[in-house]
Amino acid sequence: MVSLGVAPGTGLAANADGTWSVTTPPHSKGWVNVTITWSMNGPQPDAYLSYTYTGPKYTVGFTSTDAACPTPSGMPADQSVIEGGQIKRPYPDPKADGCLFDGWFLKDAQGNSNVAYDFSQPITGDITLVAHWSPANTGGWSINPVRGSSLGGQQATITPPKISRGIRFNQVSAGGYQAGDFRGFSMGVASDGNAYAWGSNQHGQLSQGTADSTTQKTPIKVPLPDGVAAGFTYTQVAAGGYHVLAVGSDGIVYSWGYNDHGQLGDGTKTSRPSPRQVTSLTGSSQGLQAAWISAGVHHSLAVDQNGAACAWGWNTDGQLGDGNTSDQPMPTRVSPPVGQGKAGSGFAAAHASAGRNHSLAIGQDGNAYAWGDNTYSQLGNGGTTQSSTPALVAFNPVLLITGVSFDQTTVDTLQQNSDGSVTLTTPAHNPGQADVNVDWTLGGIVQPQTHLVYTYEGMLPHAGSSGTMVLLAAGLLAAIGAAAAGRHQREARSLQA
């Protein structure tokens, strides 16, 4: 049997090549657990996989409506993007004689296009992006009129070149924090596809090839990483304490700046004033690919393109969420929340945010999770104890049954039901009462064990009689007919949360 979430798949069939086919049941968009019940020379432990339900597709159109420029060439074709996906920035840029391309801007309901489009954002509906332009001819310096009386007293107007472009920022991020050292800096991604930086450069966080005390008073362009392909642009940027993360149009995460705890994710603790790839989870030379990034004071978070959260850098309070408190100079998987999978199997997330000593994420189940330091209850789980793995933020706290045992025998598999109950198969037991021990959490916080009573029915020896004695939960003895006799059974029962 194959179940996706709490619903079984249908039409399960074996294929000639050893694979199996199954038809998925209806489900809302997002990630679900896949539970596989199987046997080989007898029942085997359930296997677990993950599956993502996608949403509808939307159309992204591209247009140009600047009357001051001729009809551009190289306008891109429409894109079809699954809900929640990202638009790929068109390359190469369109061209129009006598005009300079300033980027793509979002057309609103009134037909205006004042806001530069952020290509890191998920698509949620049909949209149109409008090409913006600036005149290539800046006009030069001029004076008007160009002649006048030798006696003077003539009013003249001097006009400078029109050097200002229509380039606008589509994304900004503020950074700069360390105990006793509050030197701010800023990052932005602009409509021309470049990243810009300004402010303090004490640790090379402006990516200008040096680290010094010089203050950059206006935005300066961040150089492209070495070896990138033509048409490379920056699509996302995140400023941390004194380090920066960025995602390129190639989907790869780049980093630069301070690296005292390995927050650059390149396997070292050496600071760098220029962009370099963050190491992949497998350590390959390809680099980490991500859909979402967040830079904390000394640690970093990313959600990769498969929806798995990963972290690296400082971990003194468990803010990496990997179950320990050791620094990690390379990306490591964030562990799943309690009851959502085995350690190391990964945490399915949509977004993540890194603070100083703690982290937050929105899971693909729609819930908020937190981990790391909890001195001031910043994890939002009702306590003040730090957590080195994701714990549910107690916004409408969820009660989760995490384990059940009958006396000393632990139940192997719990099927989580949509109403909060679990369905289980009782283990074999001698006739009589069994103490049912229920382990559970509320809002991710472990609660005192709950005890229930379950009665096993079965044959009890009774000389000279053909009856069977049944020990009831109320502690009473009763006789039933011999027709009910038989071995005690393994039965499916539900525990209501």
Automatic annotation (TrEMBL):
<keyword id="KW-0732">Signal</keyword>
<dbReference type="Pfam" id="PF09479">
    <property type="entry name" value="Flg_new"/>
</dbReference>
<keyword id="KW-0134">Cell wall</keyword>
<protein>
    <recommendedName>
        <fullName>Gram-positive cocci surface proteins LPxTG domain-containing protein</fullName>
    </recommendedName>
</protein>
<dbReference type="InterPro" id="IPR009091">
    <property type="entry name" value="RCC1/BLIP-II"/>
</dbReference>
<dbReference type="InterPro" id="IPR013378">
    <property type="entry name" value="InlB-like_B-rpt"/>
</dbReference>
<dbReference type="InterPro" id="IPR051210">
    <property type="entry name" value="Ub_ligase/GEF_domain"/>
</dbReference>
<dbReference type="InterPro" id="IPR042229">
    <property type="entry name" value="Listeria/Bacterioides_rpt_sf"/>
</dbReference>
<dbReference type="GO" id="GO:0030313">
    <property type="term" value="C:cell envelope"/>
</dbReference>
<keyword id="KW-0812">Transmembrane</keyword>
<keyword id="KW-0472">Membrane</keyword>
<keyword id="KW-0572">Peptidoglycan-anchor</keyword>
<feature type="region of interest" description="Disordered">
    <location>
        <begin position="319"/>
        <end position="345"/>
    </location>
</feature>
<dbReference type="Pfam" id="PF00746">
    <property type="entry name" value="Gram_pos_anchor"/>
</dbReference>
<keyword id="KW-0677">Repeat</keyword>
<feature type="compositionally biased region" description="Polar residues">
    <location>
        <begin position="319"/>
        <end position="329"/>
    </location>
</feature>
<dbReference type="Pfam" id="PF00415">
    <property type="entry name" value="RCC1"/>
</dbReference>
<dbReference type="InterPro" id="IPR019931">
    <property type="entry name" value="LPXTG_anchor"/>
</dbReference>
<keyword id="KW-0964">Secreted</keyword>
<keyword id="KW-1133">Transmembrane helix</keyword>
<feature type="domain" description="Gram-positive cocci surface proteins LPxTG">
    <location>
        <begin position="460"/>
        <end position="484"/>
    </location>
</feature>
<feature type="transmembrane region" description="Helical">
    <location>
        <begin position="469"/>
        <end position="486"/>
    </location>
</feature>
<dbReference type="InterPro" id="IPR000408">
    <property type="entry name" value="Reg_chr_condens"/>
</dbReference>
